[in-house]
Input
Amino acid sequence: MNTKTDAVRERVDATRVDQVTETGLKNETRVAPPIIPIRSLGEHHREQILSHLLELDEHDRYLRFGFIAKDEHIARYVEGLNFEFDEVFGVTNRKLALIAVAHLAYSPDDRRRNCAEFGVSVAKGARGRGYGARLFERAAMDARNNGVSLMFIHALSENSAMLGIARKAGAVLERHGSETEAYLRLPPASLNSHMTEIVEDHYAQLDYRLKAQSKQFHNMLAAIKALHHSWPMGGTKRPD
Ligand SMILES: CC(C)(COP(=O)(O)OP(=O)(O)OC[C@H]1O[C@@H](n2cnc3c(N)ncnc32)[C@H](O)[C@@H]1OP(=O)(O)O)[C@@H](O)C(=O)NCCC(=O)NCCS
Output
C-alpha cells in the first residue's frame, strides 16, 4: 500500500498499538529461509525503482497503492522517497534490473518513533520465489535494529499473498471491510539481529558485484561476437 500517508499513520494510535498481542517475530525460531540477496537502495536507484513500479499492471498498482495509480502518481511517489530517513530494499536479477522493491517508511512523528510501515512489489515474472516474504523479513530486521517495535502493513483484504506473508511472520490482522491492517510486533534488537543485518548487507553487495562483473563479461563477449560477424567473410573465415 501507499506508505506514509497521513491517513494511515493516524490510524496507528496508541490504543491500537497496545491492543496488539506480543507475538514477536516468528522468524527467530523458523527454519532458515532461502538466501536471497537484498540490497539497500539509495538515491542513484531512483530511476530503476521508477521503472520497476511503472511495469506493474493496473491490478498490481491497485494492490500496491490502494488505487489504480497512474504513471504520474508513481513518479511523484518515487520522487518523494527519502533515502536518508526511510529504507528501500531491492532484489535484482542477473541483468541487474530491479525485480522486487520494498519500502520501509519510518514514522516522522516523534510520538510514533516505534512504528514503521511496509510496502512491497515484486515483478510478475518473479513471484512465488519467496522475494516478497524475504523482503518483509529483511525490513522487519532493519526496523527492529532501528528501535521500531511495531511494523504495519495496510493492504486490501483481497490481497491474500501479502496478508499471507504478514500472517506467517506472526502479524495480527485487523480487517475493516475491503481493507486490512496487519501489525507485527518486533522484539528488541539483539547482537544477533545486528550481526545478521551486517552479514546480509555484505552478502548482497558481493552478489551485486559478481552480477556486475558477469554482465560486463557478457557485454564484452557480445561485442566480440558482433565484431566477428562484421568481418568480410561473414564470420566464417577470419582475415589473416
Ligand atoms: C504480494 C507480493 C509482494 C508477493 O510477492 P511474492 O514474491 O510472490 O511472494 P512470495 O513468493 O514470498 O510468497 C509469499 C507467500 O504468498 C503465497 N502467495 C503468492 N501468491 C499468492 C496468491 N496470489 N494468493 C495466495 N497466496 C499467494 C505464496 O505461496 C507464499 O506462501 P508460502 O510461504 O506459504 O509458500 C506480490 O504478489 C506483489 O508484488 N503483488 C502486487 C503488489 C502488492 O500487492 N503489494 C503488497 C501491498 S503493500
